[in-house]
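dude i think i finally got it to work??
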Amino acid sequence: MFLFWNRSSARNTNSTAQRTRAALGEDFARKLDALHDDALRTGLVTTSDLQEAYRKSREADLNPNKINLWYVLGILTFIMVLTPLFYEVITFLLGVRCFLPNNYIVSEATRPISDCGFCKDVSGPKILQNLTREKFAPYAYSSQPIIIKNAVAHWKAKTVLNFEYLKDLYERIPGAVDELCPFLQFRSDFKSLRDVFSMSKARSNLSNGQAPWYVGWSNCHPIVLEELRKLYPRPHFLPIDAEMPNTDYIFIGYEQGDFMHLDYIPRLVWQAQLQGNKSWIVAPTPECDHVCQSFSFYVEPGDAVLVDTRIWYHGSSIPNKGQFGITIQSEYG
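look at this
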């Protein structure tokens, strides 16, 4: 900012100029005097020009709030306009409970680089017939996907568990439907378990003209978990010392499935296919594309599937149009 300084005015009783000179310091003031003298010698400016410039600079100094006021008003307007929009966005994201808690983008961006040894020379799942824990032991912690045929065909859940059973179970246990358990909407239009159990009977059965749906959720409510585990035991082939969580997942619906993804979980995964067929597709992490390959496989009711979903990208669907599917999933390790 330009400040006018004149030695003759300094000799007067102009207190404003004296304060200005004192604030600037004598050395700086002398340099400013010399600059003004040089400007006057050019003949391009006059003393009155310099005084006018000084006057205008003083007006700006004395009215800084004019600029600050507009700045503050602009910020306040910006906040008032965007705050409601921001609130609606956050409310929506928090309402979709599978979105923020998984923090998938952050996990994907920060995951460690894979050692491609897990997928080298693997071109499909290892298929085993129903076997004992001792015979399964060599494969228990393998990174290769495994299908165990007819491993869960004897479970009571295979014949009892269906949409109506689950709806009745959740609705008769107080608070179960609204328990804040992870919910996965996948491609469906449902946002919560309450939405799922509120659908019409025609849609739940995928009657003619109804849109297909497929969802998953964690049965983390302790009473629900206790009741459901009466229908299926701990898989008999798992190691006796394998740690398991106090929650399982249920996947249920028609035709659709889940997207290709990794799971950011601490353990391996087993799935029990109770009803319907399911198609899986698995792929190595991108850094292993040059040594590994993608492949797909098919499971039938009564089969168990074991996949290290932490290192294999995976997706699934119910391939047969109009077919109902239900799967139980949990972890071990």
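The domain at 114-332 is CATH 2.60.120.650 (Jelly Rolls).
im so relieved honestly
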